[in-house]
Every structure is written in structure tokens, then in C-alpha cells.
Amino acid sequence: MKQVLAIAASNKKMSINKMLLLFAAGKLQRVRVNVLSLSEIQLPLYNEEIEQETGIPDTAQAIYRSIKQADGFIIACPEHNGLPPVSFKNLFDWLSRIDQLVFQHKPVLLLSASPGMNGGASNLMLLKTLLPRWGGECAGLFSLGDFYNNFNTADLKINDSSLDAKLTTEVNMFNKTVLQNQGTVLVPAMESKRI
After folding, report:
1. Across-strand partners of 112?
2. Which helix (DSSP H) or strand (DSSP E) does residue 89 occupy?
3. Directed axis angle between helix 16-25 and helix 161-180, to 10°?
4. What angle, 0 to 180 degrees and rounded to 10, lies between the N-to-C axes of helices 58-69 and 86-98?
5. Per the confidence metrics, is the pTM higher than 0.70?
6. 3-state SS class at 131
7. Residue 185: inside a domain, yes or no?
8. Is residue 192 part of a domain?
9. CA dihedral 61, 181, 128, 160 (to 10 degrees)
10. Position 126 in a domain
11. Cα–Cα nearest to 119, from 72, 169, 62, 166
């Protein structure tokens, strides 16, 4: 069975982006989903001197092993002043010290949610531009604006049927790409969660 690593890129434990991530991941078919929440990850701010003195942190190496074993990725990333959060950027600063092509030419579905009308779309366009630098191939893109009116936080679902249909289209395109790609050997991931 193919494996998807779903990354909640917020440092808030139950962020609106994690809610969207879990909802989107629940639409996947015939894949195993593992969830990685950056709110549960502790990494020092990247510094060349830290790397020289103590090496790459074990946490970053464990995350890289999970990434290496995945067949595709969903990233739900909040927008902080038009940019990804520092915790997300910091993770990739560390991971790129292991391998610049972190995603190893595998498909990535990019998501973002925001209380504002833009839905984090500016951040998603930046991430889409950066993905090839990290070895990722964008296989879908979806931003959800006006989150608290468009998303039912109690039931973890999108209220608006047209927005839900747009997300379903993006998830299906990503799902198809993951299933069609040549598989990798699966190993247990860090935080395994069947969705």
C-alpha cells in the first residue's frame, strides 16, 4: 500500500490548517496516511555552528527517514505575513543539509487555510515555486479562505459544496499521481494515524 506523509506545518497544536489537512487526507483512497505535526517537533533554529558542533539533530534525521519512505506528501501550511511559518522554514533548513532534494521528485499536495479571504494563497504560490528546489512536484493546490464561515470545526468538514468539490478534485488528482508512481518500500513512520 502506498504511503502519504501529511504535514501540518503550523506550530499550533490544533490549527485550522491541521483541520483542513485531516479533512483532505480523509478523502484519499487506497493509501496509508501518516500525520506529522510541527507543533510536536522541537528543532533548534538552524545555525551552521550548531551543525558543526553537534551535527544534524536526531529529530530532523527521523523526519527525513519518514519523508524518504513516503510516496507523496500533503502539506497544510499557514501563512504568516505572506510567508510560511518560521518552524516550517527551519525544518527545511535542517532537512536540506541531509539532502537538498528533500522530496525526491515525489508528488506534493499544497493546502492552506486562513480566516482571511485570501486563504493563504500567496504563501501557497511561494511554496509551489520553491517545491522543485526541494525535489517536490506540485500535484495539487487548494486554499480555503474565510475559514470559520466555510469550515465546520466540530465535524471537520467544508460547509460550501462548491469549495468541497474543488478540494476533492485536487485531492483526487494528487491521489491518482501517488498511486501511478512507482512505489517505495514502506516502513513504520514516526506518528502513524489511519484516516
Report:
1. 143
2. helix 86-98
3. 60
4. 80
5. yes
6. helix
7. no
8. no
9. -110
10. yes
11. 166
Residue 191 has pLDDT above 50, yes or no: no
Instruction: Provide long-range contacts, Cβ within 8 A and 24+ apart, for 119-124.
Output: 119/143, 119/144, 119/145, 119/146, 119/147, 120/17, 120/77, 120/78, 120/79, 120/145, 121/145, 122/79, 122/82, 123/77, 123/78, 123/79, 123/80, 123/82, 123/83, 123/84, 124/77, 124/79
Return the C-alpha cell found at 181.
508512481
Structure-block grid coordinates of residue 37: 505535526
Spell out a b/e string for 134-152, using b for 16 or more CB atoms within 10 Å of the CB, else e: bbbbbbbbbbbbbbeebbe
pLDDT tens digit string along 147-179? 999 999 999 999 999 999 999 999 999 999 999
Query: Which pLDDT band, with edges at 50, 70 and 90, does 182 fall under?
Result: low
Tally of structural domains, the chain: 1
| Amino acid at site 7 | I
* Among 22, 12, 1, CA closest to 193: 22
For 121, the domain range is 2-180
Instruction: Compute the radius of gyration of the chain from its Cα atoms.
Output: 16
- CATH number (domain holding residue 143): 3.40.50.360
Please name the helix (run of DSSP H) or strand (run of DSSP E) that holds residue 128, with its range, or none.
helix 121-130
**Residue in this structure with the C-alpha cell 471537520, named with its chain if needed:** 156
Q: Quick check: is 23 in a domain?
A: yes
DSSP for residue 120: T
